[in-house]
Design a protein that fits this description.
Blueprint lengths: L15 H26 L5 H26 L7 H27 L1
Helix pairs in contact: 1-2, 1-3, 2-3
């Protein structure tokens, strides 16, 4: 038996919205790591500046989620990056929401 390679050429492209959502979600996760470490270094007394940056990072994670959903609805585009950005944005937003809920419950 011969092993023939079959190729299927399509007009699909990578979703720019999906890439944007992936970058935004990754930025939000990096901000989460940085802000948690910065708060730890300051013994929990980060002040309003760290809190404001955290709220901004939560908004970025939610914007990444919206862009990921829009990128999944695009036709003729590959689904790998939009699915990865969806997972990253859900992870980022979930981590931020869990952090804020924990903070409110402890206060």
């Amino acid at each position: 038996m011969k092993d023939k390679k079959h190729y299927k050429f399509t007009g699909k492209k990578h979703s720019k919205r999906g890439m944007l959502a992936c970058i935004l979600a990754a930025a939000s996760i990096f901000a989460l790591i940085y802000l948690v470490l910065a708060s730890f270094w300051q013994n929990g007394n980060g002040g309003i500046s760290l809190g404001g940056m955290g709220i901004l990072a939560l908004i970025v994670a939610l914007a990444a989620f919206v862009q990921a959903v829009k990128s999944l609805r695009e036709e003729d585009s590959f689904r790998g990056i939009p699915i990865a950005s969806m997972l990253l944005s859900v992870l980022a937003a979930g981590a931020w929401i869990a952090l804020y809920v924990t903070g409110f419950m402890m206060a």
